[in-house]
Structure formats: structure tokens, C-alpha cells
Amino acid sequence: MKVKKQSKVSRKAIAPVAGAICSAAETQAVVSAVMSVNKNGSEKKVLIGSRVADQNSEAAKKRNYLLDDWNGGAFTVQRNNFKHKSLSSWSANPVVGCMHACPHCYVSEIVLKQKAKLAEFGVQDPDGEWGDYAFLRVWHEEKFLAALKRAEAIPSKDLNADGNRAVMYSTTTDAYQTFRYGNADFRDEKNAQLKTMRRRSLQLIRDESTLNVRILTRSPLARQDFDLYKSFGNRLMFGMSVPTLDNDLSKAYEPHSPAPTQRLATLKAAKDQGLNVFVAIAPLFPDCDDEDIRRTLQAVKDLGVMTIFVEPINIRADNVERIAAIGRQYGKNLKLDVFDSLERWREYAYDQLKLVQRIARELGIAK
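User: That's the sequence. What structure does it adopt?
Assistant: C-alpha cells below.
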């Protein structure tokens, strides 16, 4: 299938939009955000042909994976100011970049704001090289605690009402990713540092504040922290992104992420441990039909989750071209024609959200 150049749409990059199907808001209200357009988008050409799904292939071995410490700012709690997402009030992002390398991810465009700093680390094209770099933020406990205290002092009336005074791990990366490349000793050291930083920061939030926590990850490594999660009581919710239970389809959209069935098993383990769990059907692939969505929602219902969050693929930078490249590698004829124009994207986003809501009602998940 021929995919049109995304530049036709990226001149007006579409703002992220999502909705919780179990909330009181109707789909029409949710999709009103679909019409919101970010006029600051830019058009550029990116060579993405080298993106590979198999990290053991010869092409992968020749790629320049960049792992290092980030000196552009310490790891702290930061206000996220979400406009179209009811996820949290603050974010905690311990890594700049992400080894999951999901081609659909729109964060690759967000990090363009740090292009000059990334260039100091050897990243010349933050969007085109997305997934090839991951920089661990520096841990300064005093700075983290100071930011936490500032967050704690903000009155609830001054926060987004649907943020639940929560800190999200994470919004622009995955706090449970694994640094897979580079020198083994250095890589293992960074993985250990990330784990220590993650656990210590959670302990400080638990002990030094009354803020809530929401974990959102694609990695079963989160099981390592279930003991810590339980110590929060009802202040913490654990969630995973499960766009589909079709592992084969997932490979085309999330080639470096753990299989969706593994994530579902992790959610079940969390529920069995007595944790409050939620699911993000995000992003909702255009290839997911009634049968696929029904299967996913039924499995989620059986878990007894508290919230189901739904989001379409948002067009940012060259993510559609990256998806197409991965699809070709897997021989997948993906339904990417829905991104040919802004109007087609609106139709896809609106129809998919309506479909999820209808099936959720039929299954007794939503009213």
C-alpha cells in the first residue's frame, strides 16, 4: 500500500486527544478535542529507512545507540499541564528518550524543544533517531524533594480537576524500560541506577507528601516494585498500555515493547496483589476492528480495572512514515490511509472512540 507523505498533515500537527470511556463525558465532548490543531507544527524530511524491528539483525548492530547521563536537568516532579488528557497533575520522567522506540510515539516531536542540548550528546535528529537514544537524568535527592514540596504546596483548586493530585510515571518515557545496548558493564550500571532512582523517588512521594501516584508502563519489570506500590494504599494506581491483544499486530506498531499478552498477565498479577489497576488502550490502532476491541475490553473487564483510558494515534512529526516502514518490514498492510489528511484522521479518531464506547456499553463496562 502506498502511504502519502505525512507533510500534508504535519504542517498542522494535531494535538493529543484521549478520553476515559468510564468517565461521565460523552464521546462527542471527548472528540471535540480532535478538532484542536497545533499550528506550530513544522515540516521536515527524515530518513527513517534504517529503523529495524530486530535488534539482533546486522543493520541493528551498525546503528549508533546512545546511552549516557543527562546533564540538562535533574530528575524531579514537574507540572505537566495536560489539556486533553485526564491523567495526572505532575509527571516524573527519569529518562530523556525511550528504548521502546514505538514508531507511533509523538514524544519524539516534543523533545525537539531540546534539540540543541541533544546535539551535545550526538543526537542530530531527535525525531528521526527516536528510540536510538536514552539519557538517564541525574539524581539529586535534595532537588527532587524540593520540587516535591513545591508540588505539595499547590492548592487543589489551582490544579487540573481531573489530575487527581497525581504524579505520573511517566509521560514522555517509560520508567521501566531497559537499556539494552552499549558496553555491558555501563548498561548494567545504568539499569541499576534507574531502578534505584525510581524506587527512591516513589518512597519520597509516599513519605514526604500526600500526592497520589499513577504508574503507566509497557514493561512487566514493574513487578519489581509491587511491594512498594502496595505501601501507598489507595494513593497509587498501576496501569499498562494494552492497545490490542494481537501480538502479531502489536509488532508492527510496538516492535521493541513486551507483547500485549505479557502486559495483561502483569496487570492480572497486580490485581492479585490487591493493587488498583487501570488500562490505557493507547494508542488505538486503526487496524483494530470490532472483534479485536471486544476481545481486549472483555479481558480488561475480567480484570476488574478502575479506569479504561482510550486514545487514537496522534499525528506528530514523521511518526506515520515510521509506522509504515515497520509495517513493510513485517509485511503488514496496515490501515495507514486514515492519516492521508486531517479529515481522514478526524474520521478515524471519532469512529474508533465511538466504537470503543459502544462495545464498552454492550459489555456493561460503561453506562
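Residues 1-65 have pLDDT under 50 and may be disordered.
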